[in-house]
Structure formats: C-alpha cells, structure tokens
Amino acid sequence: MITAIAPGSYDPVTNGHIDVIGRAAGIFDRVVVGVVGNPTHKTPMFALDERVGFLRDALTNLPNVEVDVFSQLVVDFAHKWNAKVIVKGLRVISDFEWEFQMNQLNRTLAPEIETVYVMASPAVSFVSSSGVKEIAAFGGKVDELVPQAVARRFQELFPDGRPGTPENPQE
Description:
Elements: E1 3-8, H1 15-25, E2 30-36, H2 48-58, E3 65-70, H3 74-80, E4 85-90, H4 93-109, E5 114-119, H5 129-137, H6 148-157
Parallel strand pairs: 1-2, 1-4, 2-3, 4-5
C-alpha cells in the first residue's frame, strides 16, 4: 500500500487543490491531506479548524483520502503516516521554481521520500488561494473557483461586496 501526503496551508482550499488531490487519490492507495497548522511564511485568513472542515466537506467522495493537521517538517509528517510520496500541484512556472527548492531540501532531510508533481488541469490552472481571497474581498463571485462551503463562507465574510464592485462603485 502506497501512502502519499498532500501538504499545504489550504487557505482556502480551491477547486484546483481538489483537482490535484482527486487525481492523486486515483494514483495512490491512500492520500493524507496535511493542513499546516502554523504556516511560517503567511498569516492564514481562515482558522485551522475551518480549513480542515472545508477540506473534509469537499473530499467526502474520496474514500481513500484523509485530512490531518501538522506543525512539523513535511518529511516528519510523511514519516508519521509512513508515506513514501509527497504530492504537490503545479500551475505555473513560478510554482515549479519554489517546489524545486523545497524538493531539494526535503530530499536532503529524507532521501527515501519522493516528490511527485501533478499539473493542474487547464480548467483550474489559473486558480490560486490568494487570487480567490482577493476576488471575494472585492465582492466578486468565487462559486466556480472553490468548494460550496468556502463560497458560502466568503459570502458571510463579505456580504456587501467591497469598493470597486458594480453594486458599490469606487468614489
């Protein structure tokens, strides 16, 4: 049985993430989606329990996928689950540059763990968590970019839109 982990901040999970996780679930026996508890390079918009809930809700149709939280090195999280593979999604060249660096560091720490890259499907290759947050904050619709629970939460956070939307033009 081959276990893979799919680590990330998932702030929030997007349909691009779901695409990559779903495709990984078709390749590996078990996929553990690891939600980093305290990202070191950014402050999350959504609380950890919300991010985990969004993922669990969106992944219910994938019986070989589990969601867990981690606050340790990715390779240590992989060891916890006896994972042999780290799955990462790639959208654009800049993703590859960052992931290549992370792969080299991870291989230094745990050479027995491979990293596998899954290219984003064309329909979601432009979707990023940061882009979705910006669209939602300015009152834009994100329903086609994120799971339903995430879209509903954005509607709660930004019910009246923001400056620059047709309903509320900038002054």
